[in-house]
């Protein structure tokens, strides 16, 4: 039986692999709008921002569409980037190829991309001064293995920084609109926020996050809740930004009978129609809150 991680990865493959240039640009723009503010805060707690003068070697593990590397290239001084290295890795070949295209098209400095599994990167010991994991750990079947691998490949004194969703995320972002949209269907639709997959990890709980990092060799462990607002222009814009999340819910939580009753296209049309009625075609703001965590290994 396919796990929720398998379903998620298949959705990524199907979506990214079949995207044309316009769809790919929309995908990048959506990821930037939703994850960009979180990436900025994550890099800040990692000690990387516009004031950084010291060269670094960074692994952006489970990099997705490359939001973190883009922020680095847009924020840090060119002379610092030229003396540094940024390696973007993801288990999805489609995502890695997308990032490679971004590196070439956007002229990213000292940045490369490789297909690797964050749970077992097989990268050399003590290779990186920094590791980032943006909105990724809660998606992994064995996130503890990923944390242990980070300890192995960080240089002495190296830092990890990551973002994950707290308990309150079930009432934030796109979730409230999803709840009312599914409630508007004539059939009862099961829905729970897909921020927790079928794993024993508790990345939504700050105390568990801190203990997990400390137990696995990190010190100077900190977490902070970071909130920010994402604006959507209207229902159509919302669906471009978050339509894939509704597809994920359908693939993970719906029965075969329910999928036959509502095709993917029918589901998306019904959701958009509900939002059109709910907001009258106007735009609205979404508030996202994430746990931003960091830790350091000993010198």
TrEMBL record:
Keywords: Methyltransferase, Transferase
Domain named Methyltransferase type: residues: 59-162
GO biological process, one term: methylation
Gene3D superfamilies cross-referenced by the UniProt entry: Vaccinia Virus protein VP39
Classification via Pfam families: Methyltransf_11
Molecular function per GO: S-adenosylmethionine-dependent methyltransferase activity
Residues spanning the signal sequence: none
Domain of life: Eukaryota
Keyword Methyltransferase: yes
Family: Belongs to the methyltransferase superfamily. LaeA methyltransferase family.
Protein name: Methyltransferase type 11
């Amino acid at each position: 039986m396919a796990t929720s991680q398998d379903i998620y990865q298949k959705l990524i493959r199907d979506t990214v692999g079949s995207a044309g240039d316009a769809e790919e640009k929309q995908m990048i723009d959506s990821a930037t709008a939703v994850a960009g503010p979180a990436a900025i805060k994550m890099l800040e707690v990692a000690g990387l921002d516009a004031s950084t003068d010291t060269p670094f070697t960074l692994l952006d593990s489970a990099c997705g569409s490359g939001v973190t590397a883009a922020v680095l290239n847009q924020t840090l001084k060119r002379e610092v980037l030229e003396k540094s290295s940024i390696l973007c890795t993801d288990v999805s070949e489609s995502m890695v190829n997308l990032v490679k295209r971004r590196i070439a098209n956007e002229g990213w400095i000292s940045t490369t991309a490789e297909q690797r599994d964050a749970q077992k990167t097989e990268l050399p010991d003590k290779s990186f001064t920094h590791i980032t994991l943006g909105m990724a750990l809660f998606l992994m079947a064995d996130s503890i293995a990923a944390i242990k691998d980070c300890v192995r490949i960080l240089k002495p004194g190296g830092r990890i920084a990551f973002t994950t969703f707290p308990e309150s995320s079930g009432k934030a972002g796109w979730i409230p609109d999803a709840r009312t949209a599914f409630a508007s269907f004539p059939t009862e639709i099961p829905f729970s926020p897909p921020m927790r997959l079928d794993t024993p990890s508790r990345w939504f709980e700050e105390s568990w996050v801190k203990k997990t990092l400390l137990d696995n060799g990190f010190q100077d462990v900190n977490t902070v809740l970071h909130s920010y607002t994402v604006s959507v222009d209207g229902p159509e814009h919302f669906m471009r930004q978050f339509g894939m999340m509704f597809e994920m819910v359908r693939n993970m939580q719906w029965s075969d009978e329910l999928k036959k009753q509502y095709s993917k296209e029918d589901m998306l049309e019904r959701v958009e129609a509900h939002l059109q009625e709910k907001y009258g075609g106007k735009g609205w703001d979404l508030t996202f809150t994430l746990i931003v965590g960091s830790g350091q290994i000993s010198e």
